[in-house]
Design brief:
208 residues; single chain
Length: 208
């Protein structure tokens, strides 16, 4: 809990300067059968035409969001490894720099072993200013809220194959990460960090 409190105090310093200058990054996995709705309202005496899934599969996504905007969504199959992770950061660094032309921004990821393995490279090669999320603290990474919202929107689209799933993920990520939509997330994050400090680092409730 001490590390969580120290982290929050650091992010809150100078009126939350780091909160509004940091890209919060993470990965998410989604299964096609979880993204496909199987229930719906039916009008009496009228048959519902139900789309069937052509296959079942898992797609993984990587993204990073900031108060100024977000990277594009990286969508891939198979497990993320060190080589892929380094390539993803290389591919999306320019997007981050465009959102902060003065180059004064930071990059945050969690303590996944894969992430820790790449940290020296992150600092030396793309020269990102790295911030490490405390262990076991997904509640302090604002992008977790966005993943939940993204999955809800994709479920509404009810994709039935890989092409539709990819299209739904990309479309809804773009809509959800418009800067005006992201602002409330970051204002809420500021409040969450204050709450975490006040509660001596205890895990935050979902509604906080």
């Amino acid at each position: 809990r001490m590390f969580r409190v120290d982290f929050c105090k650091k992010m809150l310093a100078d009126d939350g300067y780091l909160i509004y200058r940091t890209f919060f990054a993470d990965e998410m996995g989604i299964l096609l059968n979880e993204a496909h709705k199987t229930k719906g309202w039916q009008i009496p005496n009228k048959k519902v035409r139900r789309k069937n899934m052509t296959d079942n599969l898992r797609l993984d996504c990587w993204g990073a969001i900031s108060a100024q905007g977000a990277t594009s969504l990286e969508i891939y199959r198979n497990v993320m490894n060190g080589e892929r992770y380094r390539q993803v950061l290389d591919d999306h660094k320019e997007e981050m720099e465009k959102l902060y032309p003065d180059r004064e921004f930071y990059f945050l990821h969690d303590n996944l072993p894969l992430h820790r393995m790449c940290e020296d490279w992150i600092i030396k090669e793309p020269k990102l200013k790295l911030i490490r999320l405390p262990r076991r603290s997904p509640d302090l990474n604002i992008i977790e809220n966005l993943w939940a919202a993204l999955k809800e929107r994709v479920a509404t689209d009810a994709p039935t194959n890989e092409k539709e799933l990819r299209g739904s993920l990309s479309k809804n990520w773009t809509a959800l990460t418009e800067p005006n939509r992201l602002q409330p997330f970051f204002e809420g994050l500021h409040r969450r960090y204050l709450y975490c400090v006040a509660k001596d680092g205890h895990k935050l409730p979902d509604h906080c």
